[in-house]
């Protein structure tokens, strides 16, 4: 497969066209951002760690019957994915109260949420990814009711798989966000799954092992990511 010109550069990944119109190359950079890009730093090894982490997780999800855009890992920092028609709606599941939920509702951080909550957000940096509902998504043409229903089903299937995976590694999957797209008429999980897009706490100490270490200036960001990976069986080489 031939990697061609850049299609898009996001906050932490660059996307490249290939000689196959149905495939793209994702390049995971060392860039790390927070607060809608207001704070950006480069962290050594981050691109390699997140690319390897994502490949492992996508493999676990595919093995569980969840369709993803991931095809193969191309190098330490690149992978090949299916080219999706992305749906501009993020799906968020929360198993434990943290982050934005605590700020919005005043609930205590660390409270178990039973059943887990499911929320939708419009993927729009300029508007700071506002929370939306199914009615708004349908009215403005961001997603159809059928697509939203399928996205919700898949998002909770991911929760079932990954809660157990991380718990077996002594960690709590606090919350996470997913993005979906359409590939040949099918709803498919896109983007990535790494500690950049979820919250993970040590099950005993509640130590934060995710991007909150960067947001809150706790340090040891990549070391925490690698520790998460090691606990679930990832070999970073």
Automatic annotation (TrEMBL):
Similarity section: Belongs to the SAICAR synthetase family.
Key words, A-Z: ATP-binding, Ligase, Nucleotide-binding, Purine biosynthesis
SAICAR synthetase/ADE2 N-terminal domain boundaries: 7-231
Pathway: Purine metabolism; IMP biosynthesis via de novo pathway; 5-amino-1-(5-phospho-D-ribosyl)imidazole-4-carboxamide from 5-amino-1-(5-phospho-D-ribosyl)imidazole-4-carboxylate: step 1/2
EC number: 6.3.2.6
InterPro entries assigned: SAICAR_synt/ADE2_N, SAICAR_synt_PurC, SAICAR_synth, SAICAR_synthetase, SAICAR_synthetase_CS
PANTHER family: MULTIFUNCTIONAL PROTEIN ADE2 (PTHR43599), SI:DKEY-6E2.2 (PTHR43599:SF3)
GO cellular component, one term: cytosol
Domain of life assignment: Bacteria
Keyword Ligase: yes
Annotated Gene3D superfamilies: ATP-grasp fold, B domain, Phosphorylase Kinase, domain 1
GO biological process assignments: 'de novo' IMP biosynthetic process; cobalamin biosynthetic process
Xref: CDD domains: SAICAR_synt_PurC
Annotated gene: purC
Annotated source species: Modicisalibacter muralis
One GO molecular-function entry: phosphoribosylaminoimidazolesuccinocarboxamide synthase activity
The reaction(s) this protein catalyses: 5-amino-1-(5-phospho-D-ribosyl)imidazole-4-carboxylate + L-aspartate + ATP = (2S)-2-[5-amino-1-(5-phospho-beta-D-ribosyl)imidazole-4-carboxamido]succinate + ADP + phosphate + 2 H(+)
Annotated protein name in UniProt: Phosphoribosylaminoimidazole-succinocarboxamide synthase
């Amino acid at each position: 497969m031939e990697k061609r010109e850049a299609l898009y550069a996001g906050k932490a990944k660059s996307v490249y066209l290939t000689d196959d119109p149905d495939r793209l190359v994702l390049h995971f950079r060392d860039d790390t951002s927070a607060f809608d890009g207001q704070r950006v730093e480069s962290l050594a090894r981050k691109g390699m760690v997140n690319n390897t982490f994502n490949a492992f997780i996508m493999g676990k999800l595919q093995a569980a019957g969840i369709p993803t855009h991931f095809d193969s890992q191309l190098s330490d920092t690149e992978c090949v994915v299916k080219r999706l028609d992305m749906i501009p709606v993020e799906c968020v599941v929360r198993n434990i109260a943290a982050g934005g939920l605590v700020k919005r509702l005043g609930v205590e951080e660390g409270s178990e949420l039973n059943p887990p909550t499911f929320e939708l957000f419009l993927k729009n940096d300029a508007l700071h990814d506002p929370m939306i509902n199914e009615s708004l998504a349908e009215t403005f043409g961001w997603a159809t009711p059928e697509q939203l229903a399928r996205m919700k089903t898949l998002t909770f299937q991911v929760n079932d798989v990954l809660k157990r995976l991380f718990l077996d590694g002594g960690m709590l999957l606090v919350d996470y966000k997913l993005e979906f797209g359409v590939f040949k008429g099918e709803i498919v999980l896109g983007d990535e799954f790494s500690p950049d897009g979820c919250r993970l706490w040590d099950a005993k100490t509640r130590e934060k092992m995710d991007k909150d270490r960067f947001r809150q200036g706790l340090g040891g960001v990549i070391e925490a990511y690698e520790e998460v990976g090691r606990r679930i069986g990832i070999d970073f080489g």
